Amino acid sequence: MTSRCVFAFILLGGVFVMEGFDIAAMSLAVPRLEGALGLDPANFGWVFTALLAGLGLGGALLAPLGDRFGRRALIVIGCLGTGLATLATATSSDLADFLIWRTITGLALGACLPNVSALSSELAPEKLRATVMAVVSAGIPVGLSTAGLLAPELVASLGWEGLFLVPGGFAIILALALFVALEGGAPAREPADKAVPGAKLPQLVLFSAPWLFPFAVFATMLAFNALNLYLLNSWLPTVLPGAGLTLDDAARVAGVANLAGLCIGIGASLLLDRWHKGLTLALLFGSMAISFAAIALTPPDQTRWTLLLMVGVGGANAGGMVLPGLCAYLFPARLLSSAVGMGVLVARLGAFAGPPLGGAMIAANVPPQLFLGMATIPAVVCVLVAILVSHALLVRQRVECAAGR
């Protein structure tokens, strides 16, 4: 790979860092807004969901434009929009303001992120696609952990608004750098999919034979992993103080747990490129399920729970890194942005349940053990679906063999 290509990967990874920090910013701000603005944390479930709704709509309606008009424009505009909307979030004074700005932030991210994944796949060496995509998307746990570790200092110096001012400013600078550094990011030029001749909307191909089954496998794992990802990252800084931690300690534990996802995700992606893909995913999600079950069965202990959360929360973040890499093996390049974009939409249908479910448990005073133990269920579902991955991979092989490739 050329130095220009490596630099492009670094900047593309920065987009995921921005996303991770932005996701964490809201969850870290919520327990502090009660004192600053008089807003009850239990009412913020729909604010978290607003970001997910925007991500889903942006991924389904805007991201596929990258397959037709080029990825660079979608990435730069999405990154710039994310920065401006995140900065605007710092001006919010009530729930309605947060709902509006988080929805707009999600739309911009949804347009941007699938094209970042697709472009990183196109630039990567063929035998390292999953690994490169995972390393690029490793920015998510980096951003999540950085937000958690820096939160006490940011709040002390800039107030809760600093949690949005920093990622917003970073996103705008990143958009300018991407505009300069990225080449055209032209869409893949392959023959139109024979399943839907002349289709104007490439994402519709995913809902017809032969691509429906692999897309269902991919999207189902994305959905249930996203449910865990947003349930945990939305509420962990609020739940852990109920187990005896201070707000600052809870933020740091969340940061360390998310940072563990970086190592787990890179390791799992290397296995995905070189080993049995379905078994790799089953082991990843199975380890998550065991860690959450162990938390549910043990009394609160900061050291023990931190280690278990490194496996559980880290595994959820790793799943978000690894699954787009699987997409590169399931689908041809001409469908990659569409598959990731529609996967984002379908995943959000599952993830929507995470923040409101967490809010309902917070309002019902559910103990931290049971709250975190609930994450066992989506992880087990992902294990069961991972068993079907080997069958899903055969679909692309059959299509390409039939086409004489």
Mind explaining what this structure looks like?
The protein is an all-alpha fold and 405 residues long. The chain has a single domain (3-185, 202-402), classed as MFS general substrate transporter like domains (Growth Hormone, Chain: A, Up-down Bundle), CATH 1.20.1250. It is 78% helix and 0% strand. It has helices at 3-37, 45-62, 65-69, 71-89, 95-123, 129-137, 139-158, 162-181, 212-239, 247-274, 277-296, 302-330, 336-351, 354-363, 368-373, 376-386, 389-402. Helix 1 (3-37) runs parallel beside helix 6 and helix 1 packs across helix 7 (139-158).
Enumerate how many helices there are, as a single number: 17
Give the overall silhouette.
globular
Helix content: over 70%
CATH architectural group: Up-down Bundle
Residue-averaged pLDDT:
81
CATH topology: Growth Hormone, Chain: A
Low-confidence stretches are 184-199
**Biggest pleated sheet:** none
Write the topology of this structure:
Elements: H1 3-37, H2 45-62, H3 65-69, H4 71-89, H5 95-123, H6 129-137, H7 139-158, H8 162-181, H9 212-239, H10 247-274, H11 277-296, H12 302-330, H13 336-351, H14 354-363, H15 368-373, H16 376-386, H17 389-402
Helix pairs in contact: 1-5, 1-6, 1-7, 1-8, 1-9, 2-5, 2-13, 2-14, 4-5, 4-8, 5-6, 5-13, 6-10, 6-12, 7-10, 9-10, 9-12, 9-13, 9-14, 9-16, 9-17, 10-11, 10-12, 11-12, 11-16
